[in-house]
């Protein structure tokens, strides 16, 4: 009993020490992002009114949907994927691939100005966070284990997207 308590406290202390620098860095990143002026901007109350609960959690609070939960993961028709928050064109079916992760995946955005990036440390290490360039809504993350020609894997929450068939 005593031993397990001590062990747990040590583990927490160790986690706390290890996490302190990334957490500070992440806060800095969020501040920098909040100071950006996005073309589309609403109050939190207005975003809540415009979005479903899950859309709000992902787009405005950077939550992640459960893998294989989005019908867009298997969407294979030709068309474009738009931001669920503001309608901005984000991805094309021409750049979509099946990554097997359970999230809609693309090897590039529809154009270089469609999305923006920041760095997040939510899992304790740096990841490239990806958001809509027009409204700042969180989309997912970009990884470097994607297919040619970019080698990128844009791992996107389907709930953040609206598919419009061609
Ligand atoms: Zn948007």
What would you note in describing this structure?
The protein is of the alpha+beta class and about 170 residues long. It has a single domain, classed as Beta Complex (Metal Binding Protein, Guanine Nucleotide Exchange Factor, Chain A), CATH 2.170.150. It is built from 3 helices and 9 strands, in the order H-H-H-E-E-E-E-E-E-E-E-E. The strands form 2 sheets. A 6-stranded antiparallel sheet has the order 3-4-8-7-6-5. A 3-stranded antiparallel sheet has the order 2-1-9, with no helix packed on it. A hairpin with a 6-residue loop joins strand 5 (about 115-120) and strand 6. The radius of gyration is 18 Å and the shape is globular. Zinc ion binds near residues 83, 86, 88 and 135.
Number of strands: 9
* Number of domain units: 1
Instruction: Provide the spatial order of strands within the biggest beta sheet.
Output: 3-4-8-7-6-5
Architecture, according to CATH?
Beta Complex
Would you list the SSEs in sequence order as H and E? Answer: HHHEEEEEEEEE
Topology readout:
Blueprint: H1 2-35, H2 44-50, H3 53-61, E1 79-83, E2 89-92, E3 96-97, E4 105-106, E5 115-120, E6 127-132, E7 138-143, E8 153-156, E9 161-165
Antiparallel strand pairs: 1-2, 1-9, 3-4, 4-8, 5-6, 6-7, 7-8
The structure holds zinc ion.
Zinc ion binds at residues 83, 85-86, 88, 132, 134-135, 137.
């Amino acid at each position: 009993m005593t031993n397990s308590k001590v062990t747990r406290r040590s583990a927490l202390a160790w986690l706390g020490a290890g996490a302190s620098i990334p957490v500070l860095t992440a806060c800095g990143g969020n501040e920098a992002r909040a100071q950006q002026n996005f073309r589309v901007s609403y109050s939190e109350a207005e975003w809540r009114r415009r979005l479903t609960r899950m859309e709000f959690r992902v787009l405005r609070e950077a939550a992640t949907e459960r893998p294989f939960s989005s019908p867009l993961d298997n969407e294979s028709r030709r068309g474009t994927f738009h931001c669920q928050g503001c309608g901005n064109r984000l991805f094309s079916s021409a750049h979509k691939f099946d990554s097997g992760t359970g999230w809609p995946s693309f090897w590039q955005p529809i154009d270089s100005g469609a999305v923006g990036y920041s760095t997040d440390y939510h899992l304790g290490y740096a990841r490239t966070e990806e958001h809509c360039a027009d409204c700042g809504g969180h989309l997912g993350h970009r990884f470097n284990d994607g297919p040619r020609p970019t080698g990128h894997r844009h791992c996107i929450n389907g709930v953040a997207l609206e598919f419009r068939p061609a």
